[in-house]
Amino acid sequence: MESIETTVIHQLVADQIVQFKETGYFEFASGIKSPIYTDLRLTVSYVHLRNSIADALAKLIKEKYPNADVIGGVATAGIPHAALVADRLGDPMIYVRSKPKDHGTSKQIEGRMNQNDQVVLIDDLISTGGSVIKAAQAVQREGYQVAGVVSIFSYGFPDAEKNFKEAGLDFAPLVTYAEVLKELLREQRITEAKFNSLNKWHRDPWNWAG
Asked: From 51, 57, 101, 161, which residue has the greatest number of CB atoms within 10 Å?
């Protein structure tokens, strides 16, 4: 019987939310040329997949952050998943904007918390971790505690590990790039040569040549 994390990997690939190029590459906004593209915003359109993700994230949070009191969604992609997870855990939910509103109360955090609450923030995708770290810092500036950060997918880049460490934040992804590759190789959906090429990109994405 496969794990819930493996089920999520299979669904992400089957629904082409995680895509690999056989030839050529995708180009990121950063300029990185990549053999992989992830569009995790699509996950909310697939009922079975979004429920599997919510179940898996709820399980991960209970294991890693048992003292969590509040589930926070990082705008915008983390919000629907935070809502589903908060419902499963029976916890209050907040969400964090990328910047404070420019009108009204000028709030960046929507929702209510108590001063000693432990917040777990959910984002969909982690590359360098920049946006979710800024969201966590916004929560901390308001005097609240961030127990940790979880995501559906992480590329597992060293930059992210460094950034989370410097920010003093714990991070736990549900699925990583390396785990996806291993599962695809195990199922013989990619060749050993393709596996090695994809690993080569992961080691040095800025200088990958395909």
From this structure: 57
